[in-house]
Amino acid sequence: MKNILLLAVFFTFLSATLFAQQTDTLIVQADQQPATTSNHKERVYKIKPWVDIPVTVAVDVYSFYGMGVIYGRDRIPESVILALNKNDVNSFDRPIINNYSEKAKKTSDLFFYGSMPLPLVLLLDKKIRKDGLQVGLLFLEAMGTTGVLYTSSAMIANRYRPYAYNPNAPMSVRTSGGSKNSFFAGHPALVATATFFTAKVYADYHPHMKNKWILYTIAGGATAATGILRLKGGHHFKTDVITGVSVGTLVGILVPHLHKNKSFNSSKLTLLPNIQNGSTGFTAFYKLGK
Q: Which of 9, 14, 43, 187 has its CB surrounded by the most CB atoms within 10 Å?
């Protein structure tokens, strides 16, 4: 389900971008204004198709494979579940074993599914819409990267979820194959990737925007809420959530940051040494316009 939704978001993003770009072109032609072509240095992000496309395909395909593996595990024998000892869990995480809430779980799903199409709002911005395909590719790369890290860690760690230890949780839930997918927390990780990616991209296209902290605060709030709900639901331990949030946040910010065109607007600012009357310093010149 998660993979199908991700693909749907991408193709929606692609269709919306192509439609928006075509609309912008028609408007320019109607106004009889020459279409402006952004040169490579004017783009916010620098994409290397021969690198980014194969990498994106690879991480997304592996994520699909990994999801199939960890959510297709065989059911766990009841005897194995009953033999679990909560004292084997470290003291920091142990209190979460007492948590179990279907309501919290369902609410966390709302944050998860709600965050997946969030980058579509970026298309409302004309500057970003012109580079919509680039941004869409970076989003898939970011989500795929988080997906690879999440599924790989779950396959390696095989850590039981808190509810597996909880006698108040239904045995049918405790014995499900997904009970061994505790580390690290996928919901908070993917929500963090989607929300912080959106905040980072918007901030990069509007470098002089005031109160950028509001964007990151909203991203952090949605991520934190998801993590707390997963704890209350008994689906993850605190260390799972902390790790998931950290991974998702870093990927969401670093993927666009590492693709940022270093020459974008960099030539507009010039620093020259200034020596007068024995004092030293620098004089800054900022070029307005092209």
A: 187
3-state secondary structure of 233: coil
Q: What whole-number distance in Å separates Cα of residue 93 and Cα of residue 163?
A: 12
CB 261 within 8 A of CB 207: no
């024998």: which residue's tokens?
Answer: 77
- Whether the upstream peptide bond of residue 183 has omega within 30° of 0, thus cis, is no
Q: Are 227 and 244 in contact (CB under 8 A)?
A: yes
Computed over every residue of the chain, the mean pLDDT equals 85
- Give Cα 94 to chain centroid, integer Å: 28
E strands of the chain, at which residues?
A: 269-276, 279-286
Whole-angstrom Cα distance, residue 201 to residue 13?
A: 15
Residue 138's identity, in one-letter code, is L
Summarize pLDDT for 20-77 with one digit per residue, the tens: 444 444 444 444 444 444 444 578 999 999 999 999 999 999 999 999 999 999 999 9
Tell me how far apart the alpha carbons of residues 186 and 176 are, in angstroms, rounded to a whole number.
Answer: 17
